[in-house]
Specification:
The protein has 29 helices and 32 strands. The chain is an alpha/beta fold. It has an eight-stranded mixed beta barrel with strand order 24-25-27-28-29-30-31-32, surrounded by six helices. Strands 1, 2, 3, 4, 5, 11 and 12 form a seven-stranded mixed beta sheet that branches. Strands 18-19-17-22-23 form a five-stranded mixed beta sheet. Helix 2 runs antiparallel to helix 12. Bound molecules: ligand C2E and calcium ion (2 copies).
């Protein structure tokens, strides 16, 4: 990458970062930190932190108190120093006020005592103010006493509430540079910064302390001070200082804490601004990781980030590394605030009035793998709402959702306006899924009670099974199907079945059908047809079957339609015809005439090459075409009616028998009958199944039989499921019968066995055959 390109790419990702919640939070944090807005946070942090983290002061520094200055004239101070000298301390720091000029003798004695210490004594000059270093208020001990002894100074910077924070290593006063007490004690006189920070974990009350008066009374163990650093101090000499975690503490405690700070293993600090960046960086990275993680992990990252901001600065500081937590805290507050605000806004946006998640929430989330999308629409939902008081509207939706959730076993039911509910279901085989939805439908047969109102409800389902498409597309598919089901009064509308133009399933159908034919997943079932006059099996209808390896059995209605759309119906049909011919040849070789029916898709009836292809097959297979019946359905999807009529006439002329399937259900069955030279009518099972219970259907069937006979056609009744129906049809003069009661569609070998049994008179048409 060239530098310019790199530059551009960097600029782009930077802009992106700054526009993100994370980036915005970092930017706002830096701004606020620059305005010192973090100071209260830092103060609270250290003050609270050092209440928790505490330890004892080192034992090598002992305070000898000379409190109440009036009791300590110079003569007595001289006496004290003499006593001290005999204890052989390592060094003495003289921190008490020296009342020079009160007694010349005393002053001389003190001067003498100091001289006899040689280099082992130094004096401390203090600022009596704790503020921005108050150097102008430092009082230096009188030269006449100190002589050449070194002078150390002690003065502290403070924060905005006057808690001591840091001190320089050296202080310039009157053109001279003095070492500070802590630097001297620790033997460290410079660092990365020009200032250092005390270790406030030193508990000021634990500093070893001896009363000067006691020392003078001699009732004091010898060698108690031997080898130690002794600070002679008047604890009330300067106003006490504010010390993190302890409030007011003697000023000298700060010098000792300062020395401890300087003695820490790593003395690293970068000042309040830069020093707060490392923790900010770390916390930002943790939060960034969290924002990318999912579910529980997210919470874990955030917890680590918060813990890091809270605990790490303290841990580091105990090692001498001063990194303030304020920027990280500000960042966490801003980021946390923004995120919870966004979440709230999102929640509002993703919840419908009923309190259920709305359809946007559904469409915005990825669907679980292996799931079907179901949309249910409640009929006359608006009417229901209109009769309910407003405050019960939400309850109405929630009750429907509860019923759906219980029935569907779905955890979350999404709710849109206008009585639409949606959820995901595990993708089961189609038949199982359809049964399941039928069951769910039955659940809504029970009226709903909302408040004092009772409603009869009806519900319709749209099902989308197009795994792999995005949630929004699938939701829209299922929604469209649900609306269609509602409009047509059907319980379930399968999206897959009627509108799959772009679905990957359909795009790859070509290959799948080829594969299914090849490996036997697609096979041909045969359902027997019986002659009612002489009670014998006289034929069979070929019905296609598909046991899809992953989708389970696919209903022929469904995949025939898809095959039509995918342009694969021709191949399928000729495959059926070939197998049907094999079956016809085999069965006709055994006994009396056996007719095989095949279904011809409406898509194919008007095809110019239909007749030619069928003729070629018949010729090649050497079969008498009159043994084959072509079943055609009246559908509006025949595009070229004249061409269809011409084809069918030619096929009939060739010898094929023509049968009008599903008679009575198409819009123009009669017109069809008038136009087409057919041989047979198949009365749809919708009428047949009800003749025993409905006199109207009985009349329709009886009249259809009469009509067919009048036109010289035979009649097949399909969908016979009971003996009673069969008997009634026989009485009505129906010629042929087909239905589960007489035999289910089954593999050819099984049909063959049934046929042999029927020839031997072992089976009668009333026997229910094994199903497939
Ligand atoms: P169809 O031509 O009306 O076929 C009769 C349907 O009724 C078959 O459904 C059959 O299993 C079912 N059936 C038979 N007896 C009974 C009964 O007693 N009770 C009930 N409830 N149903 C019964 P199937 O096999 O699911 O086929 C559905 C439709 O798929 C067929 O309706 C036909 O339109 C189409 N189809 C099947 N095979 C082919 C084929 O090879 N080519 C074409 N183009 N369409 C086919
Ligand atoms: Ca049929
Ligand atoms: Ca039919």
């Amino acid at each position: 990458m060239t530098p310019i390109r790199w530059h551009l790419a960097f600029g782009r990702s930077m802009r992106q970062f700054l526009r993100s919640t994370l980036g915005f939070s970092v930017l706002a944090t830096l701004l606020l930190a620059m305005l010192a807005a973090g100071e209260p946070l830092v103060h609270g942090y250290w003050n609270l932190g050092y209440k928790v983290v505490q330890r004892s002061a080192p034992s090598d520094v002992v305070l000898v108190t000379v409190d109440n200055g009036r009791d300590w004239p110079t003569a007595r101070q001289a006496e004290l120093l003499e006593r001290l000298r005999r204890q052989m301390p390592r060094r003495v720091l003289f921190d008490a006020a020296i009342p020079v000029g009160e007694s010349a003798e005393g002053d001389a004695a003190l001067t003498q005592a100091v001289r006899s210490f040689g280099n082992d004594i130094s004096f401390i000059g203090r600022s009596d103010k704790v503020d921005e270093l108050g150097t102008d208020s430092i009082s230096v001990p009188p030269r006449q006493i100190t002589g050449n002894a070194p002078i150390l100074l002690s003065a502290w910077r403070s924060n905005f509430v006057l808690y001591a924070t840091s001190s320089p290593y050296t202080i310039a006063l009157g053109g001279k540079s003095y070492l500070t007490v802590a630097s001297q004690l620790a033997g460290v006189s410079s660092g990365i910064e020009s200032q250092f920070y005390p270790d406030f974990s030193v508990d000021p009350s634990s500093i070893p302390q001896v009363s000067g008066a006691q020392l003078l009374q001699q009732d004091f163990p010898a060698s108690h001070l031997t080898g130690r650093t002794v600070i002679v101090t008047g604890l009330t000499r300067t106003p006490p200082i504010l010390y993190f975690g302890h409030g007011f503490a003697p000023a000298v405690a700060l010098d000792i804490a300062g020395a401890e700070g300087l003695r820490a293993p790593f003395s690293i600090s970068f000042g309040p601004h830069i020093g707060s960046l490392p923790i900010l960086l770390l916390v930002t990275l943790l939060v960034a990781a969290g924002s990318r993680a999912a579910g529980r992990r997210k919470g874990l990252w955030y917890a680590i980030a918060v813990l890091g901001a809270l605990v790490l600065p303290m841990i580091l500081r105990c090692q001498g590394m001063v990194f303030a937590p304020d920027a990280a805290m500000i960042f966490l507050a801003i980021y946390g605030g923004l995120r919870s605000w966004q979440k709230r806004a999102r929640r509002i946006q993703l919840t419908s009035a009923s309190g259920l998640p709305n359809l946007m929430a559904l469409a915005n989330n990825p669907l679980p793998v292996g799931s079907d999308m179901v949309v249910a629409v409640v009929a006359r939902y608006e009417e229901m709402l209109a009769t309910l008081p407003r405050d019960l509207h939400g309850e109405c939706a929630r009750q429907i959702a509860r019923r759906l959730s219980a029935g569907a076993g779905a955890e979350t039911i999404f709710h849109g306006d206008g009585g639409h509910f949606a959820w995901c279901e595990e993708a089961r085989p189609l038949e199982v899924q359809l049964n399941h939805l039928q069951g769910l439908h039955a659940l809504f047969a029970v009226p709903m009670t909302i408040g004092v109102h009772t409603f009869d409800t009806n519900i319709h389902f749209g099902l989308d099974r197009n795994e792999g498409l995005d949630a929004a597309t699938r939701f829209n598919s299922a929604l469209a199907s649900a609306n269609e089901a509602l409009a047509n009064g059907r319980v379930i509308e399968l999206f897959e079945a009627n509108r799959l133009a772009e679905a990957p399933w359909e795009l790859s159908l070509h290959a799948r059908i080829e594969e299914g034919l090849h490996n036997g997943d697609i096979w041909l079932a045969f359902q027997s047809q019986w002659d009612l006059q002489d009670n014998r099996m006289c034929g069979a209808e070929a019905l296609i079957r598909w046991n899809h390896p992953t989708r389970g059995p696919i209903a022929p209605d469904a995949f025939i339609l898809q095959a039509e759309r995918a342009g694969r119906i021709d191949a399928l049909t000729y495959w059926v015809v070939e197998l049907a011919i094999t079956a016809a040849l085999a069965l006709n070789a055994r006994g009396p005439r056996f007719q095989i029916s095949v279904n011809l898709s409406a898509q194919m009836v008007d095809k110019p090459d239909l007749v030619q292809n069928l003729a070629a097959i018949v010729r090649r297979r050497g079969i008498d075409p009159t043994l084959l019946t072509i079943e055609i359905t009246e559908t509006s999807s025949v595009r070229n009616r004249p061409a269809a009529c011409q084809n069918l006439t030619r096929l009939r002329d060739m010898g094929f028998r023509l049968s009008i399937d599903d008679f009575g259900t198409g819009e123009a069955s009669l017109a069809y009958l008038a136009d087409l030279p057919s041989d047979e009518l198949k009365i749809d099972r919708r009428f047949v199944s009800r003749i025993t219970t409905s006199s109207r259907d009985r009349a329709i069937v009886a009249n259809t039989i009469a009509l067919a006979h009048a036109l010289g056609q035979s009649v097949v009744a399909e969908g016979i499921e009971t003996e009673e129906t069969l008997a009634m049809l026989r009485d009505m003069g129906c010629d042929y019968a087909q239905g589960y009661h007489l035999g289910r569609p089954k593999a050819f070998t099984l049909l063959e066995a049934d046929y042999d049994a029927s020839l031997e008179g072992r089976a009668d048409p009333g026997e229910r055959a094994k199903s497939v």
